Amino acid sequence: MNKDGYADLLVGAPGEDVDGDTNGGTVVAVWGSPSGLSGARTVVNYWEPETDRYGQALAVGDLDGDGDLDIVIGSTGSSALSFVNGPVTRSGSFQGDSGSGFPAPYSASYGVTSVTAGRISPAWSTSLVVHGRQPSTGTAVTHLVTDPSIGNYADWLQELPAGTVSAIGDIDKDGYADIAIGNPAETSADPAGAKGGRVTVVYGGPGGKDGSRAPLVLGQDTPGVPGTAEAGDAFGSSVFLGDVDGDGFKDLAIGAPGENLGAGSVTVLRGTASGPTTQGATSYTQNTAGVPGTAEKGDRFGARVSLTDHSGDRRAELTVGGPGENTGDGAVWSLRGASAGPTTAGALSFGPSATGISTAGTPRYGSVLNN
After folding, report:
1. What pLDDT is attached to residue 153?
2. Interacting residues of 200 by C-beta distance below 8 A, sequence separation 6+
3. CA–CA separation, 43 vs 57, rounded Å?
4. What is the predicted pLDDT for the residue at 151?
5. d(Cα 305, Cα 250) in Å, to the nearest integer?
6. In Å, how far are 214, 246, 307, 343 from 312, measured between CA atoms?
7. Which residues of the chain have pLDDT under 50?
8. Which long-range contacts (CB under 8 A, 24 or more apart) does 281-289 make?
9. Contact partners, residue 148, CB within 8 Å, separation at least 6
10. I want to staple 80 with a disulfide (CB 3.0 to 4.6 A). Which of 54, 100, 102, 125 is the partner?
């Protein structure tokens, strides 16, 4: 964020009390350096009177196309989406904001619950997928903000299938990023949900979403998707796009942490020139041969997933968070990418103690992942 060549870490603390404001929330930038993370700075809140739980959602992207990374911050309140212009430096003044406030149909009490940044079309440097709740019903609502640099960006909202999480990536290599939206809710909890949960893939185009292509709806009852849709599976709790097999097409990882009484599972669908395919789809649990551990009730394997190339071989590793492992201590698993998809050969797992985290108070290690 400060353009020194080292990646920095943003941390949200939405429950922080700020100047007497209970749950006012705060965001901290922790600086990268040649020796690791060192030093930190609190990120300004330009709209403090109109926000609470500042930092409950975070993303970073070049919103205005000036080459600097800007910070996107979700909160509750009447200004539920805030932008802090970059660069954000270790000291000195902040660079102002490029917009704030978020209108109906978003509930001020829920606010912006999740936000994903990515480049959908070359027409805009960065677009946003924004998740929240409807004011009257509390049901999920999702929109695409194609160009956040416009002050009245509400006019640029495109409605998307409702969900709680999303991932952005060019699945079919047509030059426009696609959007995978996860909605793990049952219809009894959210009319936009489905039995066992579902994932909807919206294809991107020059103007944002491609209206000429029907979205692809995926569930565990979709032909070719492993498993069976059962109430409580929470399929779609986490989604991520990355190239597992090195063929240039983005593959889709989907977490279902409620599978088998909360033991959890992860499904991987391969990307093709026509989008994700269920042909050859694979599913992983702790009972899969080569995956460390044993699937147990409440492990919540798949609560978070990531597809990122950690080894430099141009194939993304599948990383899985299971925050319920060992009665809430939590753990993380890593499966190497390969030409046939994620392989369990050499798979590893680690928990809090591996990184010096105390297991006092059920840390739920793996509750959050990023790349």
Report:
1. 61
2. 161, 163, 180, 181, 183, 215, 216, 217, 218
3. 14
4. 66
5. 15
6. 35, 11, 13, 16
7. none
8. 281/224, 281/225, 281/226, 282/226, 282/341, 282/342, 283/226, 283/227, 284/318, 284/320, 284/335, 284/342, 284/344, 285/259, 285/260, 286/322, 288/344, 289/344
9. 63, 72, 83, 98, 99, 126, 127, 128
10. 102
**Closest by alpha carbon to 43, among 59, 58, 27?**
27
Give every CB contact of residue 24 below 8 A, 6+ residues apart in sequence: 16, 17, 18, 48, 51, 52, 53, 54
| pLDDT for position 154 | 64
Q: Are strands 317-322 and 304-308 parallel, antiparallel or unpaired?
A: antiparallel
Contacts of 174 (CB under 8 A, 6+ apart): none
Residue 344: its H or E element: strand 343-350
Residue 340 pLDDT: 92
| Tens digits of residue pLDDT in 8-34 | 999 999 999 999 999 999 999 999 999
Q: What is the pTM assigned to this prediction?
A: 0.96
